[in-house]
Amino acid sequence: MLLKNIEETFTREPTGGTDASGALHSKKITAFEESGNKTMHDTEGWKSLETSMRIMQNIIEAIGTHLYQFELDRILAVILKGVDHINRFVREISYFVINAIFIASKTIFAVTNEDAEERERLMQTQNQTKFVEFCEKLVPIVA
């Protein structure tokens, strides 16, 4: 549901939409608006995109290496669109999402001295493989 919201709000609403602070600011009428040719700032009209990207970052930070139990192609696609986005805040959060992925993944290659159960070792190996595959897809995005 979150990814669907992000994917749908990558398209700018022509009228600028409404945001949570809309009621706090008085509307300013400009010559452009009167003639019907409203110009918008690059951070205007994206609805909940920035907030949804921040929520995705927080979820990734919270679930840690369990991230690799999910299909990551949609997350990669969102990151790819986000790092090139016109809205500077969306671009910034896209890099925060990348950072969250790396921080969440820091224990994947950790070697423990304890003898773990076979199931945990298998999951760790699968996570390592998925992490490597994810990084291979991520490199062209951040390069």
Topology:
Layout: H1 2-8, H2 31-34, H3 49-63, H4 73-83, H5 88-104, H6 118-142
Describe this structure in words.
The protein is mainly alpha-helical and 143 residues long. It has helices at 2-8, 31-34, 49-63, 73-83, 88-104, 118-142. It has one domain. The chain contains six helices and no strands. It is elongated. The relative contact order is 0.13.
| Count of individual domains | 1
Q: Please write the string of helix (H) and strand (E) elements.
A: HHHHHH
Beta fraction of the residues? under 5%
Distance between the termini: 29 Å
* Overall geometry: elongated
Total count of helical runs of at least 4 residues? 6
Mean pLDDT: 74
Q: How is the biggest beta sheet arranged? A: none
Q: Which stretches are poorly predicted, pLDDT < 50 over at least 5 residues? A: 18-35
Output the radius of gyration: 20 Å
Structural class: mainly alpha
- Secondary structure: helix percent: 55-70%
Give a count of the beta strands, DSSP E runs of length 2 or more.
0
Summarize this structure briefly:
With 143 residues, the protein is mostly helical. It is built from six helices and no strands.
